[in-house]
Amino acid sequence: MDARLPAPLRPGDTIAVTAPSSGVGPELHRRLDVGISHLRRRGFEVLEGVCLRDDAGHHVSASKEARAAELMAFLVDPDIAAVVPPWGGETGIDLLSLLDFDLHGLGDAAGAEPHGHPYAPPPGWRTGSTSPPTTDGSP
Q1: Which residues sit opposite 45 in a β-bridge?
Q2: Which side of the chain, N or C, has fewer Cβ within a 10 Å radius?
C-alpha cells in the first residue's frame, strides 16, 4: 500500500483539536488557549472538539465511545485539513477497537461524502454543541 501524505496546511485551512485520550483539565486551559490562539494568528480556522476540555477533572473528558466518535467524525470530514490532539496519552488505546479504519478513506480526495455514515457529526456540531458526539447521529 502506498502512503497517503496530506497536503501542506495553508492559511484558511481548518485544524480540529480533540483529546482522544486525556482531556485538558482547567489548570491547563490557559496553556491550551495560547496554542489555539497561535494557530488562529497564523490564519488557520480551529475547531475545538467537545471532548477536548475536561472541565470536571475526570482525567478523560468523555466516554471512550464519544471520544472515538469525535475522532472519526473529524478524520472523515472533508472540510478538516488536520486533526491534532493536545498531547499523547495512555487512555487513547481504549479507542482502537472503536475506530473504523476502513471508513477513514471516505474523507479523501475520491469525492466520497462522509455524511450518512455512523460517524457523521450530529446537528449543531459546529455551532458550539456541548454534548459529545454520538455514534447513532442523534444530538
Answers
A1: 14
A2: N
pLDDT band for position 138 (50/70/90)?
A: very low
Looking at domain 14-106, its CATH class is alpha beta
Who contacts 92 (Cβ-Cβ below 8 Å, separation ≥6)?
20, 21, 85
Residue 20: count other Cβ atoms within 10 Å of its Cβ: 29
> Residue 119's pLDDT band (boundaries 50, 70, 90)?
very low
- Residue 137, pLDDT > 60, answer no
Phi, psi of 63 (to 5 degrees): -65, 160
Count CB neighbours of 16 within 10 A.
23
Residue type, 74: F
In the chain, domain spans: 14-106
Q: Determine the Cα angle at 130 with ends 124 and 134, to 5°.
A: 70
Reading the block at residue 16, the C-alpha cell is 480540529
Cell of 112: 466520497
Residue 34 parent element (H or E): helix 29-41
